[in-house]
Amino acid sequence: KMENGVRPAENRRCFGFSRRHSLFLLLVLGVVLFVYCTNIRDPKETVSSRVTKKTLETQTGQRTAAPYVSPGPYLVEYPYEYHFTINEELKCKQEKPFVVLMVQVAPRNRAHRDVIRNSWGSEKLANNQVVALFFLLGMQTGDDAEQVHQQLLQESKEHHDLIQGDFVDCYKNLTIKTMVMLEWLNSYCSSAAYAMKIDSDMFLNVPNLVNLLLKAPRTNYMTGLVAHGAAVLRDPKSKWFLPQEIFSESIYPPYALGLGYILSLDLTKKLIEASRHIKPLYIEDVYLGLCMRHLGIRPTDPPSYSFHVFPLSYSRCAYSKIIATTCPENMDRVWIWREFKKPGPHC
């Protein structure tokens, strides 16, 4: 019997061939789609997110995202491998300074940097010793972060005195800022004899600083306004509050106040190593004091009345006897420095 002019056996062979053909084509298409889909990147995954994503290798070889664990409000992320987004790698090799002044300042605070550049920061030679100046800052956050970074790049081209690390610049991260400073000094300025960390609202008598250092030890030396027997503050309302579970001792070891302290350059490497054994407290000067205690080194008290934590009223005589003092916000530090540098006796 014929069906539509085709014998039944031939009809079955035709439909059988077509069905096998279709299954084969579907199989090939499925393989192609699988290969294609498994090689497509997640469109939401940018280069930045891939670079910054932390990964762990499991025992099976599978890569899984490392969960971020916050250190909490009283500790910071250190040790950690921070990098420099703005740097002056060769300046110390070229200038060969005796002492390096490291001013910690906020990225946005161009005004403080210019005040220092136009006052005590302009003194590049004191008592025949070379003095180098750098401003240390972290990364700006917020809507204007990119604009601030571009301004910093331009400022760096103009002055060649900015060092920027890739940590968030904020009060809580001062310990990170200080440790990054020590890492930079150890990597790029280890030939200097001394470094001074100083806040941006300070007045510095550079010749008196150099005179002190010409007579100071070259190793294991740190000085500044040293706090002895400072109590650990347990009041949660305090800016420097530390709970007992974070730091159980009631008294801090001696430490140089963060407004301005000096250290011999051999200490940079030693403090970096000591930091790997000390819980990273957010109070940076206390943290350095703990690192110094770990090293078995006590900070040295400076000459009497040479450092002032409270602003010292200006007079030529008074400022001729100090090394550093804080300044009130309304003080014209550029005018004071120019008046102080005028010829004639100070007292």
UniProtKB/TrEMBL annotation:
This protein's pathway reads: Protein modification; protein glycosylation
Q: Which GO terms describe its biological process?
A: lipid metabolic process; protein O-linked glycosylation
Any Pfam family matching the protein: Galactosyl_T
Q: What is its EC number?
A: 2.4.1.-
Q: Which domain of life is it from?
A: Eukaryota
Cellular component (GO) terms are: Golgi membrane
| Entry's family note | Belongs to the glycosyltransferase 31 family.
Q: What Gene Ontology terms describe what this protein does at the molecular function level?
A: N-acetyl-beta-D-glucosaminide beta-(1,3)-galactosyltransferase activity
Instruction: Give the UniProt subcellular location, in the record's own words.
Output: Golgi apparatus membrane
> Which EC class heads this enzyme's classification?
transferase
Q: Which organism is it from?
A: Poecilia latipinna
**UniProt entry keywords in alphabetical sequence:** Glycoprotein, Glycosyltransferase, Golgi apparatus, Lipid metabolism, Membrane, Signal-anchor, Transferase, Transmembrane, Transmembrane helix
Q: How does it sit in the membrane?
A: Single-pass type II membrane protein
Name of the protein in its database record: Hexosyltransferase
The record's InterPro entries line, in alphabetical order, gives: Glyco_trans_31
